[in-house]
Amino acid sequence: MNDLPEDIFTEPEDVDPDTLANLGPLRRLAGVWEGRKGVDLNPKAEGPERREFIERIDIQPIDPQANGPQLLYGLRYHIHIVATDEESTFHDQVGYWLWEPATGLVMQSLTIPRGQVALARGQVEPDATRFSVRADRGGPGYGICSTDFLELAFRTDSYELTVTYNADGSWSYVSDTMLQVRGRAEPFRHQDRNTLVKVAEPRPNPLARITRGEASYEEAHGLAPPAAT
Q: Cys-Cys with 19: which of 61, 93, 96, 105 at CB 3.0–4.6 Å?
């Protein structure tokens, strides 16, 4: 949506409540996934370090979202990763995948608990089996924001994630993050990759369950029922 409409307040009417039916290229991401052959390449003082990891991603549909006339369907995700040679969490990440059917815009937001957030974008066909999103530091609208320490020591200049759907129902990703490490002349290409297989189906979004009579308002939103009076 490069050209803003004159009316920026009126939200769309007759919105389909079923998010899973309107996710375009993101539909195949919905569910719970595990991958046991992840590889991470990250910078260390003595040189690049290669780590193997196990990953679990929970990706669930959310209710349709509107920014005035802009209609988005999306998925909320949580990534949890442990390295194969240690017990503590290696990486934790939360965010959203968003799809705008009217324009083919795909967005990924991400937050990691080291003081960094990003919003990446891509243009994708609804039936795509491979797509990428990208964010650049300082880019207008889509970018990367980090703590003062990360800006000085491990500045993130760009982030790009490519997703590929495989014929066996699994999906793979390659994440490329360009870092400027303090004291190093050349940027470092921090890369992660993995292939994930589905271990559980997604839950329908709350509004879809309510509309179909499958759950009450409280049940669909995970709320306690009203106290008896």
A: 61
Residues of the chain with pLDDT under 50: 1
Q: Residue 9 falls within a domain, yes or no?
A: no
Nearest-angstrom CA–CA distance, 89 and 81: 6
pLDDT at 2: 60
pLDDT at site 32: 98
Residue pair 157/178 in contact by the 8 Å Cβ criterion: yes
What's the predicted TM-score (pTM) here?
0.94
Residue 86 domain boundaries: 19-201
Query: Structural domain tally of the chain?
Result: 1
Q: Where are the alpha helices (DSSP H) in 138-180?
A: 148-153
CATH number of the domain at 68, please.
Answer: 2.40.128.20
What number of other Cβ atoms are within 10 A of residue 65's Cβ?
Answer: 16
